[in-house]
Structure to design on (633 residues):
């Protein structure tokens, strides 16, 4: 028991490093390594301290162990923000109400990091009507040179916006389709099957079955 | 002491002897008090108001035991398509079913026997369960939709249709009937025990539709798979949002019935006869309870047998663009735009990474999910957030039908949502 207690700070710091640091390779090399040079060191490293609920408290009294397994939150539990104004739960949970109003001025560091850098992107609405006309003209004149991504780069907007504005000619679409067909024809059985399964996973994900 | 007639003990005689010969038809007809018959006729046209004896009275002119010495005369009497109602009182199966469902003694066993006769077994509307099932279907659909709408006020219409089908549709009612221990007879007929569910695969039957129209373009809808908008599904289609089939041309039977069942012949194409017959039995039981015991008892019965079943509504959803829909929702409700945040991850460089992504609007987490890639986890989290929006429930609130009771409290309006998200 004493060794486990002694190991706890090490373990918690390790797990902290695993969860928060994802980008820096130095930390990753420590955290994600699962073995040491020798067996005894590896075993010692992999000794996980028990959850605090399972330890006898300082007072030494009996206590109830509450350590439910990690589970996804139920969708039947409506988030506080989704409760309508008339719902009595909104009034009952006053602390949440106060928190959501004061937290706006609190530090943003309490939130977890965004999953992608693009998540923080603000909408710019910088493309003017004349630029859209020009974009259409360029795309119609030479769709090969002025591809969607090139136009997006030129006018500093997203490719989705370019696709909303311009429509390629049917000939160009047909050419692109034939090119894609040629690429697909070169796929072997493994890649074809993998792509098919990816589509199936997409369907399952939309149904919430994955 | 009567003379034993040997030729009547043959197998054919046993097969053709109607069961009601055990109780002399004249006695049963005369001994029935007239007020009861009138009462039943007025209330529900239940099976006690008219007996097959009256329907086949022409064939029964020579039905006295003295005259039926000739076997040919016995043979000439037509067989009833379903058991005689008088036999219901002597059926152990029927009594067991009556007791198993804890039905009130106000419901006669003859009515329960009638509820077990599908229109495909007996086409006569006074002896099959079509009318009872029609009443029961209306009640089932009313109470189910009312309960769903007040309990989950934000459900999209398509999910509401699916949930209606899950609670009060044919498959669910079929399961309920099977759980009640109702068994189907191999073939309908007079000699069958009245405790069996009787239907025929060959004869046309009735599909219960409270409303719904056969669309003019239904052939093209089926052939070319045209799209059906939700608005037209609400107006034109049946209570479960399914297409009302075009009635096929079926040769009209001219059997001179005094009660026309033209309505019942409207829709005769049934895919699964077995399922339809079981479902119609459950509907007919509900209808019988309503007619004999009143609306409150019928509501309690529906609540305890139909609405008490578990249906996971969160499995009915299928989103095509969950992230865009969530963005539209947040814009509509003046929330901060949703941002995906990484709650935890493991094995980023391994073959099987797991990311737990939460969708945040401002400082509030709307939903979270785990996935094998950042995009999949984000999409799943958006789906969870949308589900928790749509599956909001105000809890146990009163139903509009609660106010039908005598000493009901005044109606308190429930939460009504402005509608589903259009993206």
């Amino acid at each position: 028991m004493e060794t486990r207690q002694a190991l706890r700070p090490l373990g918690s710091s390790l797990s902290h490093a695993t969860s928060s640091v994802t980008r820096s390779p130095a930390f990753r090399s420590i955290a994600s390594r699962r073995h040491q040079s020798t067996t005894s060191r590896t075993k010692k490293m992999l000794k996980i301290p028990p959850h605090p609920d399972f330890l006898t408290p300082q007072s030494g009294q009996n206590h109830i162990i509450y350590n439910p397994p990690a589970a996804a939150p139920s969708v039947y539990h409506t988030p506080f923000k989704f409760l309508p104004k008339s719902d009595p739960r909104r009034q009952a949970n006053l602390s949440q109400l106060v928190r959501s109003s004061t937290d706006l001025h609190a530090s943003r560091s309490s939130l977890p990091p965004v999953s992608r850098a693009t998540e923080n992107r603000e909408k710019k609405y910088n493309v003017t009507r004349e630029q859209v006309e020009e974009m259409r003209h360029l795309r119609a004149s030479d769709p090969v040179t002025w591809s969607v991504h090139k136009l997006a780069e030129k006018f500093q907007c997203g490719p989705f916006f370019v696709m909303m504005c311009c429509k390629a000619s049917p000939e160009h679409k047909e050419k692109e389709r034939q090119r894609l067909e040629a690429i697909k024809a070169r796929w072997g059985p493994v890649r074809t099957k993998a792509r098919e399964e990816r589509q199936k996973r997409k369907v399952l994900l939309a149904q919430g079955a994955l | 002491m009567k003379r034993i007639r040997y030729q009547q003990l043959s197998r054919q005689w046993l097969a053709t002897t109607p069961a009601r010969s055990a109780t002399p038809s004249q006695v049963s007809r005369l001994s029935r008090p007239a007020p009861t018959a009138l009462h039943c006729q007025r209330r529900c046209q239940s099976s006690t108001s008219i007996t097959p004896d009256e329907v086949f009275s022409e064939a029964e002119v020579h039905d006295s035991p003295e005259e039926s010495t000739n076997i040919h005369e016995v043979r000439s009497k037509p067989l009833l398509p379903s058991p005689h109602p008088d036999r219901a009182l002597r059926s152990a199966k029927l009594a067991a079913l009556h007791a198993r469902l804890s039905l009130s003694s106000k419901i006669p066993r003859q009515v329960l026997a009638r509820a077990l006769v599908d229109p495909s077994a007996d086409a006569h509307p006074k002896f099959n369960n079509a009318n009872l099932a029609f009443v029961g279907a209306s009640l089932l659909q009313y109470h189910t939709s009312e309960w769903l709408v007040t309990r989950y006020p934000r459900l999209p219409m398509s999910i509401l249709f699916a949930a209606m089908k899950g609670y009060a549709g044919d498959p669910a009612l079929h399961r309920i009937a099977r759980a009640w221990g109702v068994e189907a007879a191999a073939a309908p007929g007079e000699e069958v025990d009245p405790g069996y569910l009787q239907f025929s695969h060959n004869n046309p039957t009735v599909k219960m539709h409270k409303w719904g129209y056969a669309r003019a373009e239904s052939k093209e809808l089926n052939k070319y798979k045209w799209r059906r908008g939700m608005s037209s599904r609400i107006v034109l289609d049946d209570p479960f949002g399914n297409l009302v089939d075009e009635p096929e041309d079926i040769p009209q039977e001219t059997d001179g019935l005094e009660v026309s069942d033209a309505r019942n012949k409207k829709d005769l194409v049934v895919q699964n006869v077995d399922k339809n017959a079981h479902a119609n039995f459950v509907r007919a039981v509900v209808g019988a309870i309503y007619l004999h015991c009143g609306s409150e008892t019928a509501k309690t019965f529906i609540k305890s047998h139909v609405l008490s079943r578990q249906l996971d509504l969160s499995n009915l959803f299928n989103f095509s663009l969950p992230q865009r829909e969530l963005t539209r929702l947040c814009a509509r409700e003046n929330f901060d735009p949703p941002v995906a945040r990484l709650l935890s991850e493991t094995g980023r460089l391994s073959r099987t990474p797991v990311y737990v992504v939460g969708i945040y609007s401002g400082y509030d987490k709307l939903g979270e999910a785990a996935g094998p890639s950042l995009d999949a986890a984000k999409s799943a989290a958006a789906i969870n957030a949308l589900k928790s929006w749509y599956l909001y429930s105000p809890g146990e609130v009163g139903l509009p039908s609660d106010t039908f009771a005598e000493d009901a409290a005044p109606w308190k309006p429930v939460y009504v949502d402005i509608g589903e998200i259009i993206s």
Remarks:
- Residues 2-54 of chain A form one domain.
